Amino acid sequence: MTQDPQQPSDQSPDIPPDLEYEQDLIDYSAAFQSVNDLTELGNAAIQAGLIAGHGYHSGKYEILCNGEALLFTPEEAEAYLKSLFEQTESDSPG
């Protein structure tokens, strides 16, 4: 017996994954990795004696440096910390 193409079959066709959900997972994963990278960079700056502390505060990324609490976006904080390391490297003899 052949099935009428107009009639639904007993088997569900393979449904492709929800692309919006997948994109949300990718975005979340990238954001989580970015936070981890920023945390590691901040921890390295503490160990190098470049800053006193760091972390999220009131929706911004706070860096404690030279007795001041500096507030940045995560992207700005990453750039600031990298510049501290670059400045230290250029100041060291070698």
Question: How would you describe this protein?
Answer:
The protein has 94 residues and is of the alpha+beta class. Helix content is 50%, strand content 17%. The protein contains two helices and three strands, in the order αβββα. It has helices spanning 19-47, 74-91, and strands spanning 53-57, 60-65, 68-72. The protein has a three-stranded antiparallel β-sheet with strand order 1-2-3. Strand 2 (60-65) and strand 3 form a beta hairpin. Helix 1 (19-47) runs parallel beside helix 2 (74-91). The radius of gyration is 25 Å and the shape is elongated.
Give a short summary of the structure.
The protein contains two helices and three strands; from the N terminus they run αβββα. The protein is α+β, with helices and mostly antiparallel strands and 94 residues long. Helix 1 runs parallel beside helix 2.
